[in-house]
Amino acid sequence: MTATMTSAPLSRKDALSAAGPISRLRVQIATGQAKALRQAAGLSQRETAALIGVQATNFSRAERGKHTFSREASCRWIALLDALAERVDPDSLKLL
What we know:
Elements: H1 12-18, H2 21-30, H3 33-40, H4 45-52, H5 56-63, H6 71-87
Helix pairs in contact: 1-2, 2-6, 4-5
């Protein structure tokens, strides 16, 4: 007789924590969380692009899921999102 373990589904926060950084970025883009964090922090797309070292037009496309960056640029975007998440009031986020 083997025991089976059932577990509750992961919350969105736990799923993001368990995912690798690039996978987590994809989820944040797809759910609108990346854009919501940027807007809640008062950053424009152009300002955000400059902070992570990419062209503004490519950033706009990436934020809509239409473009991908190099691993290095993606990691810089992840680091920025993590920093913004620590400073932004979760109640001010408007997820789409």
